[in-house]
Design a protein that fits this description.
Layout: H1 2-28, E1 40-44, H2 51-60, E2 76-79, H3 90-106, E3 110-113, H4 117-124, H5 132-136, H6 143-160, H7 162-166, H8 176-182, H9 187-193, H10 199-205, E4 210-213, E5 216-219, H11 232-255, H12 265-281, H13 288-298, H14 316-319, H15 322-336, E6 340-343, E7 354-356, E8 361-363, E9 379-384, E10 388-393, E11 397-401, E12 416-419
Parallel strand pairs: 1-2, 2-3, 5-6, 6-8
Antiparallel strand pairs: 1-9, 4-5, 7-8, 9-10, 10-11, 11-12
Helix pairs in contact: 11-13, 12-13
Length: 446
């Protein structure tokens, strides 16, 4: 019996080894990094701090509940940038999106937040559109002390750099009252929050400018025809590299004492220009590295992230005539092998989502912040499958492309199949909505 037992034992060991090997291979197998597009996708345009209307449209189409928690199931929500500035609650909008990113992921859905030109402006300290209310939302009980301390640091900086101050292209504040007026309570905290290590700065730097999902490309401004030679990944990498270059150069200039951590973009550029002039007049040879870094920063207007025809700023899709844009759009779509492009950035005066160029481009900035944009309204573009595009508003919905009807003739911005708030359709072929979410991915009733 010893022989048969030995053979049996050997076979058992081999079997166990095979099992363990299989388990090990399963654990070490690389995870799939690409994510297949869901059958339900919702795109929302510029928010500009309008938390109330943003929440209202998300609830209306069934993506969040009355407690602002994710109920969209496996739906993908794309927000195409400009959640900041102008409106009263940009910080709360960011907090909501940060929470929804996590909640949607746990439910099998996704929240894709893209960079707009206003996100880029805040990252770089271009604060022209940040309101006193926006700054105040970052203030706390210690803000007066921080503001006073920042002014004292600024005063020391001025006294320490008389040659630089003498060459400033634009005189900076001379009195404490002037400085305080331009740097209100919450200003210092806002700059810290948007820094590379700040809560919102770190979050924003983790976002891309463009997203390709299925057969669509989403971004804030648009892809200029001259940039169509660059792939989506290359465009995203270029913009991220420019942000890193800005952060690195700013930190270097802080370490060199040329600027202070809380300087805004105007102050940074002002000091950098003055430094170049002062160094040229100085008898002491300037550091080649320092000079090169400053000169590179002063060319930031040529960066893709801030150029008027860059992906975050381009307005051609709105401004082109139908005949001018049709050929250009076909070339861009062919270059990326996609069917549609969805953009925000340019407010549509009609307050409605505007399809253009044979339903190949969708302009979805409808001026959600109606207190700033008269006639504006909250809206969402709902995409079901490959060819069902519906514009959703608080009081009605409009079918823009119906897979059964192939395509509505909307080159001039007209829509088809309008429904009022009761769901009664003006046309029999208008698509019904299921809680604002495509039937294939709608969550079960709760």
């Amino acid at each position: 019996m010893v022989g048969p037992l030995r053979i049996y034992f050997r076979r058992a060991c081999i079997s166990l080894f095979v099992v363990f090997l299989s388990v090990g291979l399963a654990w070490t197998k690389p995870k799939k990094t690409s994510v297949e597009p869901s059958q339900s996708l919702v795109a929302i345009g510029d928010v500009h701090g309008d938390l109330d209307d943003f929440v209202a449209i998300l609830q209306h189409i069934g993506l969040i509940d009355k407690q602002d928690h994710w109920t969209g199931g496996k739906t993908t929500l794309v927000q195409v940038g400009d959640i900041l500035d102008r409106g009263p609650k940009p910080r709360q909008v960011m907090d909501l999106l940060m929470a929804l990113e996590s909640e949607a992921g746990r439910a099998g859905g996704r929240v894709v937040s893209l960079l707009g030109n206003h996100e880029m402006m805040n990252i770089m300290g271009d604060l022209r559109y940040v309101t006193p209310v926006n700054f105040a939302s970052f203030a706390d009980s210690d803000s007066e002390k921080r503001q006073k301390s920042a002014y004292e640091e600024y005063a020391k900086w001025r006294n320490k750099h008389p040659e630089l101050v003498a060459e400033l292209p634009q005189p900076m504040e001379l009195t404490e009252a002037e400085w305080m007026a331009r740097h209100p309570l919450g200003y210092v905290e806002q700059r810290e929050a948007f820094s590379p290590k700040g809560e919102y700065g770190k979050w924003l730097r983790g976002h891309y400018a463009l997203a390709e999902i299925g057969g669509e490309i989403f971004l804030h401004g648009g892809i200029h025809p001259d940039l169509a030679r660059m792939k989506v990944d290359a465009l995203n990498s270029r913009i991220r590299d420019e942000i890193k270059q800005f952060d690195t150069t700013k930190q270097y200039l802080q370490d060199e004492g040329v600027i202070l951590p809380f300087f805004n973009m105007q102050e940074i550029m002002n000091a950098a220009q003055a430094e170049v002039i002062a160094e040229r007049k100085s008898r002491v040879p300037a550091s080649p590295e320092r000079q090169a870094r400053i000169l590179d920063l002063l060319k930031y207007g040529e960066w893709l992230s801030v150029k008027p025809d860059g992906p975050l700023w381009f307005r051609g899709y709105d401004q082109w005539s139908d005949s001018e844009g049709a050929a250009q759009i076909d070339k861009i779509l062919a270059a990326y092998k996609v069917a549609h492009i969805v953009v925000g950035h340019t407010v549509q005066g009609s307050g409605r989502i505007r399809p253009r160029f044979g339903n190949k481009v969708f302009l979805i900035d409808t001026g959600m912040l109606s207190s700033y944009y008269p006639g504006g309204r909250a809206s969402a573009l709902e995409i079901c499958g490959d060819a069902e595009f519906t514009a959703r508003y608080m009081d009605q919905q409009a079918v823009l492309i119906d897979d059964a009807a192939s395509s509505a003739k909307t080159g001039s911005g007209a829509t088809a199949g309008v429904k009022d708030a009761t769901g009664i359709s003006e046309k029999p072929d208008a698509l019904p909505a299921v809680g604002g979410i495509c039937p294939a991915t709608a969550p079960p009733p709760q």
